[in-house]
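Structure record:
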Amino acid sequence: MDKIDRHILEVLQKEGRLSTAELAERIGLSPSPCARRLKRLEDESYIESYQANVSRVKAGIEMSFFVEVSLNNHQEASIIAFENALSEMEEVINGHVVSGPYDYLLEVVSADLNGYEEFTRKLHKLTSVKDIHTHLSVRKVVNKTTLPIFT
C-alpha cells in the first residue's frame, strides 16, 4: 500500500461512483495503471464493497438508539444464537462485542418509539438476553462516512 493506493481509497470513499477514467484523472494516473491498482485493492479486500449512503430521514428513520445488552450465559451456542438473531433484526445497523459491564453495544434505528418498543420485545424474547439498557441518541455530532487509511 503506497501513497497512490491510499489516495485511491480516500477518493473512492467520498465519491464511489467515479468511473475508472474519472478516478485516474482525479489521482493523476493514466486509466490503465489506475484500473490495475483498483483491481488489486479489490482483490486484496481493501475495498470490501460499493454502496450508497441513504438519507435516514428520507428512509423514514427518525430515531437512533444505543442499546447495551448483557447475556445470561456465555456458552458458545447461546452466543451464536444471539448473534444470528441480531443479524436478522433489520433495526440493528451496528453491533459490537464490548468489554465492561455489558456484553454487546448495538446501534438501533426506528421510525418512532413504537417501532423501538417492538424491537425491544423481540430482543427480550431471546432466551440468552439477561438485561438491556437503552440510550436515545438526541443528536449526531459526528457523521463520518470515510475511514482513515493508516497502512
Notes: Strands lie at 63-71, 92-97, 104-110, 129-136. The mean pLDDT is 95.
